[in-house]
Amino acid sequence: MADSNSAISNFDNLSISDQLRAAPVTAAFLLASIIGALVVRFLPSHIHWFTIQNYDLISNSVTLGSLSGTLDDREYWRFITPTFLHFGLFHLTFNALLIWVLGKNIEYVLGSFKIFFCIIVIAMFSNIGQYFLGGASIFGGSSGVVYGLLGFIWVSSNIAPSSILSLPQGLIGFMLIWLFLGISGIIEFTIGLNVANAAHIVGLISGMILGIFDGLFRLNS
Asked: Does the active-site annotation cover 86?
């Protein structure tokens, strides 16, 4: 964990290999996302091991299981693993870049345990939120975690203004506009992308709640 106001600038001056070693949880998350994308691309018959509910594919017809089935079978990893599935290079690249920009800052400044805890909590709530609010479907991607980390830094750094955590200029505005475009259906209508809006919203809210606790803790410590 870094403790000086030059922490982030010092981190950015490190080599890529040193940055990866200094942010192991964020790096592991990116690796898991790459593996998830490879499963989607080359091993589609194994995608069902990553989804929040199991499903059967018979004669090109998908029969979805249920969340209660996930609980009954004690397959608790399913609450997290949809986060690693990525459906295409653009999907993976967009999310991976943002995870790296946001995650490495949190990990380098606040420590590996905190970013691990944030990722697990945000992933779980964003996936469950997508299931209940968006309906049972085969969904995936780490954008819920992206919005959660965005909300975490946004709120935490505003509560504790001396925090060295900061967001790249214009990022919060861009992501909120993207969120609006997704909710409005404009993205799906114009470029044909199905957006997991519920995961984005629940991820953002859960990250903001974690940011409140973090900001208050650091403000009073």
From this structure: no
